[in-house]
Design brief:
Structural class: mainly beta
Distance between the termini: 34 Å
Largest sheet: 8 strands, antiparallel, barrel
Number of strands: 9
Number of helices: 2
Order of helices and strands: HEHEEEEEEEE
Low-confidence stretches: 9-14, 218-223
Length: 223
């Protein structure tokens, strides 16, 4: 009896399956930006020359994401950006304003699949963000230029909920929502009071490939 138990345990240890998944897609992210100090300076200068013209923080950002998964370990990345421009006046007398932003994060998470069509993934985020703000005011004689750069490292956590829809063998489409929170941890340029921090919400679509590989005590890896 003991011999049977030992042999069975050895077989279980040698015969196992590994699930491998790959996902990628596009999404829209509502994220909190804080450029109030810089925008206050820009709006103040603008009102002196053109009346009340308020340039505010941006809205949702188009993002892309992708990850690979081995068993329950998920490693991937996500990021996105935007460019917002505003110009009034003519060649000799004008106001030009540009606000560009980019963010890129690495995401390491634990993939939990209680059912075959639902993915729950808590994860940590590590990455950075860059904002470039520029304003040019030309009064016909002199061009005043204001520039600000905000570069910082970010960290935080996120939780993803995805519903998988089978398309064909091994191929799936995932509809997901993700909520997270980011904190600026180190300012390379600018300060921790500006840039990006706080909660964010993402929704989008992924396309994925799911495969399971099995190995027995005397077998090669098979799909």
């Amino acid at each position: 009896m003991k011999r049977i138990v030992v042999v069975s345990l050895l077989y279980v240890g040698l015969a196992f399956a590994v699930r491998i998944e790959n996902w990628g897609g596009f999404s829209a992210t509502g994220i909190f930006f804080d450029f109030e100090t810089e925008l206050h300076n820009i709006n103040g200068d603008t009102s002196l020359h053109y009346g009340l013209v308020i340039i505010g923080n941006p809205g949702p950002v188009i993002t892309a994401q992708g990850w690979g998964q081995i068993g329950s370990l998920s490693i991937g990345a996500w990021g996105g950006g935007f460019l917002k421009q505003y110009r009034i006046g003519d060649i000799d007398h004008y106001l030009y304003h540009s606000l560009g932003y980019g963010i890129a994060n690495i995401e390491v998470g634990l993939a939990i699949e209680p059912w075959g069509f639902i993915l729950i993934k808590p994860a940590i985020d590590l990455g950075g963000s860059l904002a470039l703000i520029e304003q040019q005011i030309n009064n016909g004689f002199v061009t005043d230029i204001y520039r600000a750069t905000i570069l910082q490292a970010n960290a935080g956590g996120a939780l993803t909920l995805q519903f998988d829809i089978p398309l064909r063998e091994y191929r799936y489409m995932g509809i997901f929502v993700k909520g997270g929170y980011l904190v600026p941890v180190y300012p390379f340029f600018g300060s921790l009071e500006t840039g990006i921090y706080g909660p964010y919400l993402t929704a989008g679509i992924n396309l994925g490939l799911k495969q399971e590989y099995r190995k027995g005590p005397s077998q090669n890896w098979d799909e």
